[in-house]
């Protein structure tokens, strides 16, 4: 039995180091492609051998690290993590392909950043020890910070620092929560441990109700900012917009906030002192995010900024579905993370291409691009439709599961989210009509359609969006297993 | 192999045709039109065979279900209702596709056109075949997006792109209501199972839904201070979806603008594939509607009002296609009214409404294809520039007149002589009379009579202005090719005789939809639940009621002939901007100003969205405030760092001294 | 025999002179000299206690301390030399690039 999880975490990091030492773009991109493809193959191998009928952690690896503090090297994946690892493993090779012919300064560092982000994000998804979890969690910040501040747009420094400090502060609050849990459990049992499943299961035995709520809220804050959810989203539009295309895609792959919500928050939720309050907090944040993000997206003039706000709106479904506490809504929220990652990566790629070929992203300055770029138009129309929740594409499965499932427990909050659907359709169609259709704006000069690498990378992801929209079971099955388990916990506690 | 097992091919073949045409069409002659035509032809044959089989034995419906995910399924259901719809849609779509090979021959992207129409047809067929409400919704949305693509087919025209967006957004409002209805329904059913759904039970399948109607009807919730039964809530939300899709007031605004697409697309939308979906939805969930207090009344009122309202606008339009568009809206109003009168006549309402739907499909497709033929030949669709077209296009003119007769419902009451429209439209109007008798509300009946007059007026105005008189401009047309005139003739034949041939059998056949091996619903029991008193349908209406529709239709014909044929009345004084009524009608009741310019642009876009921007700046400002606070406190604290060693030394010594003293004092005290 | 207290008093006086100089002087050389004074006061203490306790360790430490003071003076004067060449002054008021 090979340590497959260690491999998929370490290989990107090792290849990142290798990429740093390359001299030319050609070498760097080959290294990057090799690293990401190896991870994809290993992930597919793991996926094939994954048992989606059990909710336990699989492929576990356990080694002592600092026994006196209860720190272990503990890796494992369950039905929550597996789809997200799959998402990263699928998108990253295509992201490398997408950037294949781009010209930019220091390509070696660029590809190193991509690989390092992949390693760190997968690390978060596999870590079963809070120490390790936190290391990877913070490690994701570093390459993304450089991604924005080196290759970003005109306001890159401001955006990079805002992103770094904002989410770092949130991480520190989360760290406080982890410490609270760690010491409370240590006091209680007499042995220190940072093992995530153990600590979560010991949470219910903590005596003080106030301490429980504080721990829960601190952790929740850390995750919510990363998602990001209203009203802690303001780092996100700047970072997404200023980042280079690859950076935006990497941001979209950064599903660690929502992951934490399912992996850590929901199993603890029924044992907090005031679970109903916590559910209300999450439901309010989620449903307001959906509506708020939609309105903000409607008012944007910059295409990429619009996509960034639409992301706030879509991630609201994740929080709402998690608060819904019905197996269908929780798994729908998990599926929303997966589907959103696929859809948004193509949308950001489209934005990047439009900016590169026409030199502007202001929607009103574009026009009639479909005539000059038919291939881009087809892919873009498809992903925009997926993003506005068209049935048959993956976004719909997620949205309908979240809305239908959550309605059982949270009808009024679902109505807030439902009212955003028309607005969502409005800004997507408005942008499509202005940018792609109508008379071609001659001021844009001559533009050429996307090249083969871009067509392939965007096309394959778009086809996956269609595939998972028609047949969500390959990933939804394991999500359902895990959400069943989470929800059964709720039932036991009578929440 | 039994033909039922091939039922799944009905939507799958056109869907495959979409993929093939999309990728290979450019390399084939005529945009690869042969692929969708073949696929739809096979679908048509399968549908027809299944329909014939069902006719012999209406209780043995085709039903196949497969698990999709969680407690949801995908599956097909061909019962009498679905069977007639399938046959009609495949048939109409087939003829329209054949016609399109001629019509689209000069277009620059025929392969994209045929791919999209194939997908359009496939989605509509999938919608009809659905055996659960969610799958129906999925296809419903696909129909919407195909209409978006097809209305915006000439996307380089800004008006087409705008019309496409408007169509999609307006129907989307209805779709959201429909989705909300599904969500409420799902939550209710989910609670009934206490959250544990046994394997093999798919809770959104129609048999499951219908079986739980009494329990859903028992659930009440308070919305805005009103006690509402959930079944009423759900059905009204469903009806909201139907209002959007089937162009009922007030969401009809997209339909006339949808003329920006090719005329054949209009024919598809209006006859076969899109607007009928709303009517079909209400028909499909009819057992829920009849169990819901007030829902059918709403349906009847909205339908009747739409029929009249659209008719008033139809009489002032100068664009050939726009007149037909308002005619469609008006006729859809009749179909909704036909369903609404189910409050009085029970399941028979589904029969008469679907009968009108099918007949309408034939004559409306014919009307559009004739209009397309005219436009194709003369290159304009402004009626003020036309006139005397009948001389150059005799076949088109003849078929057009047949279609107009069918639309106005000409026929002799009490006999089986009449055009198709006569049998279905008169049945609806008569049922509206029964509805008035039964419920004591006569408005729907009066509206439907008035609308019949307007229908006759606007369609014969169109005929006289376009086909008779002298040409008003020099357009130089020619008769269309055979690929266009043959479908016209087939449709004309059906518009003429289909009603008469099937009138007896059709209603009873379709009304049997709700009693078979898949669902078994007692409509009378459900009607008691909804508080409706069904009357047994018998021909005891006064003779005047039977003749009334014909009288008003003839009156309309005569007025149109006098005004537009013989021109005995000078219309110029009426048709002017100074006439407030004309102005109101011509501006279409200012709906565009109200809905588009005011509500969408001013309130939603400029109001809410920009308010949102301001709020977002507020959040950004708060975050910035924290960072400014940090920077400013750093600014002030760094003043202590003078850089002079002496100061540091002084500070150290002072500190040490203080510490020594402190320790000393503390020691003393302790 | 002179009581140890007197040694300590002398050392304290010398230390205070050094401290006063450190706090008031501006010239680098003077400050360095003051530091030397303070170090030597400490050395005096070491030697005094050493002889008081009859233990040679203190005197050994004093020798260490003197050696270190020599090194320190050498480095200190070298830095001041370098500064003087750069800035033409050894007044510490003007050598404040680390300020703020």
TrEMBL record, chain A:
TM helices/strands, residue ranges: 6-23, 30-48, 80-98, 110-128, 134-151, 163-185, 205-225, 246-265, 277-299, 306-326, 338-355, 376-398, 410-432, 453-470
UniProt xrefs under InterPro entries: NADH_Q_OxRdtase_chainM/4, NADH_UbQ_OxRdtase, ND/Mrp_TM
Key words of the record: Membrane, Transmembrane, Transmembrane helix
Membrane topology annotation: Multi-pass membrane protein
Pfam families in the cross-refs: Proton_antipo_M
Localization of this protein: Membrane
Swiss-Prot/TrEMBL GO biological process terms: ATP synthesis coupled electron transport; electron transport coupled proton transport
Domain NADH:quinone oxidoreductase/Mrp antiporter transmembrane: 127-424
GO MF, one example: NADH dehydrogenase activity
GO cellular component term, pick one: membrane
UniProt record similarity statement: Belongs to the complex I subunit 4 family.
NCBIfam families with a match to the protein in the record: NDH_I_M
Protein name per UniProt: F420H2 dehydrogenase subunit M
Originating species: Methanolobus profundi
Automatic annotation (TrEMBL), chain B:
Sequence intervals crossing the membrane: 6-25, 37-56, 68-99, 135-155, 167-187, 265-283, 295-320, 332-355, 361-380, 392-412, 442-464, 485-503, 544-564, 648-667
Molecular function in Gene Ontology: NADH dehydrogenase (ubiquinone) activity; NADH dehydrogenase activity
Highest rank taxon of the organism: Archaea
NADH-Ubiquinone oxidoreductase (complex I) chain 5 N-terminal domain boundaries: 72-114
KW Transmembrane (keyword) present: yes
Start and end residues of each NADH:quinone oxidoreductase/Mrp antiporter transmembrane domain: 130-438
GO terms under biological process: ATP synthesis coupled electron transport; electron transport coupled proton transport
Keywords: Membrane, Transmembrane, Transmembrane helix
PANTHER family given in the database record: NADH-UBIQUINONE OXIDOREDUCTASE CHAIN 5
Record's protein name: F420H2 dehydrogenase subunit L
TrEMBL record, chain C:
InterPro entries assigned: F420H2_dehydrogenase_subunit, NADH_UbQ_OxRdtase_chain4L/K, NUOK/Mnh_C1-like
Membrane spanning residue stretches: 6-22, 29-49, 61-84
CC per GO annotation: NADH dehydrogenase complex
GO BP: ATP synthesis coupled electron transport
Annotated EC: 1.12.98.3
A GO term, aspect molecular function: Methanosarcina-phenazine hydrogenase activity
Membrane topology annotation: Multi-pass membrane protein
Record's subcellular location: Membrane
Main localization, broad class: membrane
Keywords associated with the record: Membrane, Oxidoreductase, Transmembrane, Transmembrane helix, Transport
NCBIfam families for this protein: F420_dehyd_FpoK, PRK05715.1-2, PRK05715.1-3, PRK05715.1-4, PRK05715.1-5
Stated family: Belongs to the complex I subunit 4L family.
Protein name per UniProt: F420H2 dehydrogenase subunit FpoK
Organism of provenance: Methanolobus mangrovi
High-level lineage: Archaea, Methanobacteriati, Methanobacteriota, Stenosarchaea group, Methanomicrobia
Gene that specifies this protein: fpoK
């Amino acid at each position: 039995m090979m340590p497959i999880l260690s491999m998929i975490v370490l290989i990107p990091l090792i290849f990142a180091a290798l990429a740093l030492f390359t001299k030319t773009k050609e070498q760097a991109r080959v290294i990057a492609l090799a690293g990401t493809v190896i991870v994809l193959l290993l992930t597919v191998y793991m996926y094939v051998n994954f048992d989606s009928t059990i909710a336990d952690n699989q492929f576990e690896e356990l080694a002592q690290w600092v026994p006196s503090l209860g720190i272990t090297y503990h890796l494992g994946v369950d039905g929550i993590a597996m789809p997200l690892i799959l998402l990263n493993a699928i998108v990253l090779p295509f992201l490398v392909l997408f950037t294949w012919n781009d010209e930019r300064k220091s390509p070696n560092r660029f590809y190193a950043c991509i690989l390092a982000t992949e390693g760190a994000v997968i690390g978060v998804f596999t870590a079963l020890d809070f120490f390790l979890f936190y290391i990877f969690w913070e490690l994701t910040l570093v390459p993304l910070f450089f991604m924005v501040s080196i290759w970003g747009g005109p306001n890159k420094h401001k955006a990079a620092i805002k992103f770094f400090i904002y989410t770092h502060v949130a991480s520190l609050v989360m760290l406080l929560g982890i410490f609270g849990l760690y010491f409370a459990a240590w006091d209680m049992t007499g042995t220190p441990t940072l093992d995530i499943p153990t600590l979560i299961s010991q949470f219910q035995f903590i005596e003080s109700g106030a301490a429980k709520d504080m721990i829960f809220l601190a952790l929740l804050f850390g995750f919510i900012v990363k998602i990001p959810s209203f009203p802690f989203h303001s780092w996100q539009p700047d970072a997404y917009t200023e980042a280079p295309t690859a950076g935006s895609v990497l941001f979209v792959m950064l599903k660690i906030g929502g992951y934490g919500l399912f992996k850590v928050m929901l199993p603890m939720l029924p044992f907090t002192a005031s679970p109903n309050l916590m559910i209300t907090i999450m439901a309010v944040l989620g449903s307001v995010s959906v509506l708020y993000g939609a309105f903000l997206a409607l008012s944007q003039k910059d295409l990429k900024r619009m996509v960034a706000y639409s992301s706030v709106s879509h991630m609201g479904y994740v929080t709402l579905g998690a608060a819904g506490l019905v197996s269908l809504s929780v798994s729908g929220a998990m599926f929303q993370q997966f589907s959103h990652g696929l859809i948004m990566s193509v949308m950001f790629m489209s934005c990047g291409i439009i900016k590169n070929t026409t030199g502007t992203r202001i929607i009103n300055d574009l026009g009639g691009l479909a005539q000059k770029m038919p291939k881009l138009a087809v892919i873009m129309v498809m992903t925009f439709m997926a993003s506005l929740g068209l049935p048959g594409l993956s976004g719909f499965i997620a949205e309908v599961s979240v809305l239908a499932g959550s309605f059982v427990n949270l009808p009024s909050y679902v109505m807030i989210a439902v009212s955003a659907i028309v607005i969502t359709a409005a800004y997507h169609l408005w942008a499509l009509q202005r940018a792609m259709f109508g008379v071609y704006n001659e001021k844009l000069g001559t533009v050429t359609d996307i090249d083969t690498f871009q067509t392939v990378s965007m096309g394959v992801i778009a086809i996956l969006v269609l595939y998972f929209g028609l047949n969500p079971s390959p990933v939804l099955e394991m999500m359902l297993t895990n959400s069943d388990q989470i929800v059964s916990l709720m039932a036991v506690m009578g929440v | 192999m039994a033909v039922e097992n091939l039922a799944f091919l009905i939507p799958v073949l056109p869907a495959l045709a979409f993929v093939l045409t999309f990728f290979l069409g450019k390399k084939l002659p005529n945009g690869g039109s042969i692929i969708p035509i073949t696929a739809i032809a096979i679908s048509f044959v399968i549908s027809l065979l299944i329909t014939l089989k069902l006719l012999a034995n209406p209780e043995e419906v085709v039903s196949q279900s497969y698990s999709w995910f969680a407690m949801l399924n995908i599956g097909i259901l061909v019962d009498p209702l679905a069977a007639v719809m399938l046959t009609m849609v495949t048939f109409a779509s087939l003829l329209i596709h054949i016609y399109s090979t001629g019509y689209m021959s000069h277009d620059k992207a025929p392969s994209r056109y045929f791919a999209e129409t194939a997908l359009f047809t496939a989605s509509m067929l999938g919608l009809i075949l659905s055996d659960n409400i969610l799958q129906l919704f999925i296809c419903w949305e696909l129909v919407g997006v195909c209409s978006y693509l097809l209305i915006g087919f000439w996307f380089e025209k800004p008006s087409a792109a705008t019309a496409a967006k408007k169509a999609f957004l307006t129907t989307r409002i209805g779709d959201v209501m429909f989705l909300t209805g599904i969500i409420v329904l799902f939550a209710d059913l989910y609670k009934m199972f206490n959250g544990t759904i046994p394997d093999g039970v798919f809770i959104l399948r129609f048999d499951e839904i219908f079986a739980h109607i009494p329990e859903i009807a028992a659930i009440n919730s308070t919305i805005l201070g009103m006690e509402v039964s959930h079944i009423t809530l759900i059905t009204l939300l469903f009806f909201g979806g139907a209002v959007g899709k089937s162009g009922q007031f007030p969401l009809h605004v997209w339909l006339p603008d949808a003329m920006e697409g090719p005329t054949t697309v209009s024919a598809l939308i209006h006859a076969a594939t899109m607007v009928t979906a709303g009517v079909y939805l209400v028909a499909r969930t009819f057992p829920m509607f009849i169990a819901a207090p007030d829902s059918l009344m709403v349906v009847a009122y909205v339908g009747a009002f739409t029929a009249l309202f659209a008719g008033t606008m139809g009489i002032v339009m100068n664009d050939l296609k726009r007149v037909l568009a308002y005619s469609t809206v008006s006729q859809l109003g009749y179909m909704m009214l036909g369903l609404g009168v189910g409050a009085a006549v029970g399941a028979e309402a589904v029969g008469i409404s679907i009968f009108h739907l099918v007949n309408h499909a034939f004559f409306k497709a014919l009307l559009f294809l004739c209009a397309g033929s005219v436009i194709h030949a003369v290159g304009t669709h402004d009626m003020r520039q036309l006139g005397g077209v009948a001389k150059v296009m005799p076949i088109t003119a003849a078929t057009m007149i047949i279609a107009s007769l069918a639309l106005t419902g000409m026929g002799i009451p009490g006999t089986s002589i009449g055009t198709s429209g006569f049998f279905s439209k008169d049945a609806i109007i008569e049922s509206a009379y029964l509805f008035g008798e039964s419920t004591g509300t006569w408005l729907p009946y009066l509206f439907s009579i008035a609308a019949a007059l307007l229908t006759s007026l606007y369609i014969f105005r169109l005929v006289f202005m376009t086909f008779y008189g002298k040409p008003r401009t020099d357009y130089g047309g020619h008769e269309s090719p055979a690929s266009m005139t043959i479908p016209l003739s087939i449709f004309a034949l059906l518009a003429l005789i289909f009603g008469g041939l099937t009138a007896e059998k059709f209603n009873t056949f379709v009304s049997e939809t709700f009693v078979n091996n898949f669902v078994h619903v007692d409509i009378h029991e459900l009607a008691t639940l909804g508080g409706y008193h069904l009357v047994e349908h018998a021909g005891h209406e006064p003779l005047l009621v039977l003749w009334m529709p014909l009288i008003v239709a003839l009156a309309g014909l005569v007025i149109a002939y006098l005004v537009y044929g013989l021109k005995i009345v000078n219309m110029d004084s009426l048709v002017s901007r100074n006439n407030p009524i004309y102005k109101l009608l011509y501006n279409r009741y200012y709906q565009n100003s109200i809905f588009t310019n005011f509500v969408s642009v001013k309130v939603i876009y400029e109001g809410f969205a920009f308010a949102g921007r301001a709020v977002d700046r507020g959040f950004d400002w708060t975050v910035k405030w924290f960072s400014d606070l940090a920077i400013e406190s750093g600014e002030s604290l760094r003043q202590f760092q003078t850089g002079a060693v002496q100061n540091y030394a002084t500070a150290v010594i002072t500190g040490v001294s203080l510490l020594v003293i402190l320790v000393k004092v503390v020691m003393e005290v302790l | 025999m002179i009581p140890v207290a007197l040694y300590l008093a002398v050392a304290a006086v010398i230390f205070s002179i050094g401290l006063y100089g450190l706090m008031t002087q501006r010239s680098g050389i003077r400050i360095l000299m003051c530091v030397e004074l303070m170090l030597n006061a400490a050395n005096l203490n070491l030697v005094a206690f050493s002889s008081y306790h009859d233990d040679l360790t203190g005197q050994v430490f004093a020798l260490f301390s003197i050696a270190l003071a020599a090194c320190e003076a050498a480095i200190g004067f070298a830095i001041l030399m370098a500064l003087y060449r750069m800035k033409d002054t050894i007044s510490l008021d003007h050598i404040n690039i680390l300020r703020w």
